[in-house]
Every structure is written in C-alpha cells, then in structure tokens.
Amino acid sequence: LKMGLVINLLIACFGTIALLYWAKDMVNIFLIKGETDITKLATTIIRIIWPMLIFAAANITLTAYLTGMQCAKQSALIALTRSLVLPVLLVIIFWKFFGFMYVFYALPMSEICVFILALFLLQGRLPRKLVNN
Q1: How do the pLDDT tens digits run along the chain, 133 residues long?
Q2: DSSP letter string, 53-113
Q3: Looking at the chain, which terminus has fewer C-beta neighbours within 10 angstroms, N or C?
C-alpha cells in the first residue's frame, strides 16, 4: 500500500507539475492558431482542477488496494462515489448556486471528499489487521 501510494503520488505530482508548467503549450496542441480566448479559458480551468490529479492518484491506489484485500464493497463504494455520484452532484450544485466557472471546482472537491471517505473505509483494513482476522 505504501509503495503503491508513493509511486502513484510521485507520478501524479510530476504530471501535474508538467501540466501546470506547459499548460498553454499542451492546450494549443488541440487548437487552431490564434484561439487566444479558448487558450486562456482552458489554462484557467487547468489551474482550478490540478489538485484533482493528486487526489485521484491516491483514490485509485486505495480502490485497488481494497479490491486486492477482498473488500469489494468498500472498493465499489469509492469507485462509484468518485466517478459518478459526487462529481455529478457537485457539478449540479456548483452550477446552480455559483455559475459556470465554479463547476470546475466541483471536480477537485469531489476527489478530496472521496479521499476522506476512502481513509475512513480503510480503517481496520490495513494489512496487519486483515491478517489477524
């Protein structure tokens, strides 16, 4: 678990740093030259959602760990919550109460909430506790 978390978090951190550093260049790969408004919007969105990448790496690792430890219900709960329930719910809430740009804050918020849920579900399911049971 520790090694998986460390490796996934390192990869996520390096990827996030690269994305933040070269955000404009990466966005422009997909755009026609001169689309400055879209470039500005996309780079703003990247600067909003980047924490999502770090927490997603941890959540994916914890889901895989729980699956491997035969805790399928907990793993499925994390997977469903992070991929469907919380993102959709938070996007709807943020759109309704705060507007378009705040919708993008829903994504990192969703991953952070799922991370907290995953830590809660992990209690009592660490290797030494599972082996003793």
Answers
A1: 889 999 999 999 999 999 999 999 999 999 988 899 999 999 999 999 999 999 999 999 999 999 999 899 999 999 999 999 999 999 999 999 999 999 999 999 999 999 999 999 998 887 776 666 6
A2: HHHHHHHHHHHHHHHHTT-HHHHHHHHHIIIIIHHHHHHHHHHHHH-TGGGGGHHHHHHHH
A3: C
Angle 106-5-104 (CA atoms, 0-180°, nearest 5)? 10
CA distances from 73 to 8, 11, 86, 87 (A): 23, 27, 17, 20
> 110 to each of 40, 85, 127, 130, how far by Cα in Å?
24, 9, 27, 28
**pTM exceeding 0.85:** yes
DSSP summary character for residue 34: T
Please give the helix or strand (H or E) that residue 41 lies within, else none.
Answer: helix 36-68
Q: Tokens at residue 38, please? A: 């879209």
